[in-house]
Amino acid sequence: MTSSSTLRERFAASLMPNYGVPPVVLTLGRGCEVYDADGRQYLDLIAGIAVSSLGHGHPAMVKAVAHQAATLAHTSNLFVHEREVELAERLVGLLGGDAKVFFANSGTEANEAALKLVKRAAGPGRHYFVAASHGFHGRTSGSLALTGKDSIREPFGPFGMDVRFVPHGDLDALRDAVDESCVAVFTEPTQGEAGVVPAPEGYLAGVREICDATGAAFVLDEIQSGIGRTGAWFAHQSEDVRPDVLTLAKGLGGGLPIGACVGFGDYADAFHKGDHGSTFGGNPVACAAALAVIDTIENEGLLAHTAVMGDLLAEQLDGIDHPLLAGQRGSGLWRALELSGPHAAHVQEQAAVRGFLVNAVAPDAVRIAPPLVITPEQIGVFIEALPTILDAAEAAATKEQQ
Ligand SMILES: Cc1ncc(COP(=O)(O)O)c(C=O)c1O
C-alpha cells in the first residue's frame, strides 16, 4: 500500500491548496474505527464532520448502496425513481407532515435551494436577510453571503445580497433587525462550525415568533444537527417549533453525498416548475443510503442510544480535572471540549498520535461528533487517554512558545 507520506506529497502536488494537506491519510473504516495508510488504527470521534452516523461499513448501508448501484445508479431529474419518493415521504413523516422536499448533493446546495425558495415566496418590498454572526451555511456564493465568519466570507464578496448579522441566540437583537422588509432569517439551532455553540433555551421559539410577527421566513439550517446527532431526529423538535424551511445534509446520507431542503406549509409549493434543479440531486444511490440511515437509526434505537451516550460522554468529561480542560458543551453526540487556552490544534495532533481523531474546530474548542453507534467502552477508552493527550498538548504549546 502507498504510504501516508507519499500520498500526502502527491496530494500537495496535485490538489489545490484550499485544505492545506490533511495530516492523516485514511484507507479503511470499520464501525467506529478507521485505519491509515501505514496501518495505524484510530477511534473515529469526528465521523467525517458529523456525517458517518452509522460508522464505517455498516452492513445495512453496504447492502443498500450495493443493491442500488447494481439496480439503477442514476436517472437525473428527467425521470422519477422510487428511492427519492420513499426518502421524501420518510422525511415528511419524521417532520410531522405538510411539507415537501427538494434533494441536493450537499449542505451548501440545500441552503442555496432554501435561499431561492424564500426569495420566490417573498412578497414585494422584502429585500434583506438576517443571519447569525459566526454562523456557517456553506461555501457557495449564496450560502457564503449568509455565513457570519468574516475571514471566509469577505475575500469573496460582494455577493449582491443585503445580509445583516446579529449575535447568535440574541432575540432582542434579532427583533430589532427583522421587519416587514426582511425576506428570511437563516440560523442554526447550535452553531457547529463556530465550535458547537448552543443558543439559549427558547431561542427557536423566539425566532418563530419574530418571523410570524413580520412575515419573514424562518430558515433553520440543521445540516449538522439533523438526523439524530442531538439524540432527536431534528434539534428543533426539542423546542416543539416548526421552521418554514429546513435544510439537511451531512448525517442524512451517512457518508454518501445528499442534501435536502424541506419547505413547510406554503413553502412546500413555493417553487414554480423550472425554478430550480440538480442533475445529481436525489441520486438513487444517495437516497438508498439515506433510507438505510433512517431505517437503521429506527431499528437499532439510535436516537435513545445517542442521548444516553451523549450524557455519558458529558458526565465523564465533566469528571476530568485538567488545567487545559475548562468544560464541555453541546448535546447528544455533538460536543466541544472547551479549552482554557488556544491549543485546540495541539490537542487534535496529540489525540491523533495516540489513536483518536478529533477536530480543532476553533482555537479553544475541540469538536467531538462520533458515529452514533459508539459504545460506552469506546467512550471510556478516549476518556482514559484524554488527560495524557491534554498534558502532551500543553507541553507542545509551551515548546512552541519558547
Ligand atoms: C450548519 C452547516 N450548514 C451548511 C454546511 C455546508 O455543508 P457542505 O459542506 O455539505 O456544503 C455545513 C458544513 O459544515 C454546516 O455545518
TrEMBL record:
Binding site for N(2)-acetyl-L-ornithine: R139, S278
Record GO terms (molecular function): N2-acetyl-L-ornithine:2-oxoglutarate 5-aminotransferase activity
Entry keyword set: Amino-acid biosynthesis, Aminotransferase, Arginine biosynthesis, Cytoplasm, Pyridoxal phosphate, Transferase
Cited CDD domains: OAT_like (cd00610)
Pfam families (UniProt xref): Aminotran_3
Biological or metabolic pathway of the protein: Amino-acid biosynthesis; L-arginine biosynthesis; N(2)-acetyl-L-ornithine from L-glutamate: step 4/4
CC cofactor: pyridoxal 5'-phosphate
Binding site for pyridoxal 5'-phosphate: G107, T108, F136, D221, E222, I223, Q224, T279
Source superkingdom: Bacteria
Major place of residence: cytoplasm
Localization per record: Cytoplasm
InterPro entries: AcOrn/SuccOrn_fam, Aminotrans_3, Aminotrans_3_PPA_site, Class-III_PLP-dep_AT, PyrdxlP-dep_Trfase, PyrdxlP-dep_Trfase_major, PyrdxlP-dep_Trfase_small
Catalytic activity field: N(2)-acetyl-L-ornithine + 2-oxoglutarate = N-acetyl-L-glutamate 5-semialdehyde + L-glutamate
Cofactor binding remark: Binds 1 pyridoxal phosphate per subunit.
Sites of N6-(pyridoxal phosphate)lysine modification: K250
Family: Belongs to the class-III pyridoxal-phosphate-dependent aminotransferase family. ArgD subfamily.
Name of this chain's protein: Acetylornithine aminotransferase
Species, as recorded: Streptomonospora nanhaiensis
